[in-house]
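Here is the promised in-class demo. Please do not try to memorize the tokens; focus on the logic of going from shape to residues.
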């Protein structure tokens, strides 16, 4: 089927480790995501230099999901405000 996207393999480096990500997304998007994760890990490691890699990865995930939830909440508030303005 022509509409179906094909999965692509993209090799990225996160915190010194190479990973092959299989995704429908463009390689540039996967690289951008990996760069955000890498930067967040390095930021957290600077504040907590004695963290082992596993704990660092978990704290990075917690921080990224926290940011994501806050953004989703903010988007929902903006959508609700816009709906109220359009209904009112």
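The designed amino acids, position by position:
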């Amino acid at each position: 089927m022509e509409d179906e996207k094909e999965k692509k393999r993209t090799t990225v480096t996160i915190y010194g480790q190479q990973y092959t990500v299989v995704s429908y997304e463009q390689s540039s998007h996967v690289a951008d995501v990996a760069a955000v994760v890498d930067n967040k890990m390095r930021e957290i490691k600077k504040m907590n230099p004695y963290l082992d890699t596993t704990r660092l990865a978990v704290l990075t995930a917690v921080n990224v999901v926290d940011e994501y939830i806050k953004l989703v909440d903010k988007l929902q508030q903006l959508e609700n405000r816009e709906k109220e303005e359009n209904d009112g």
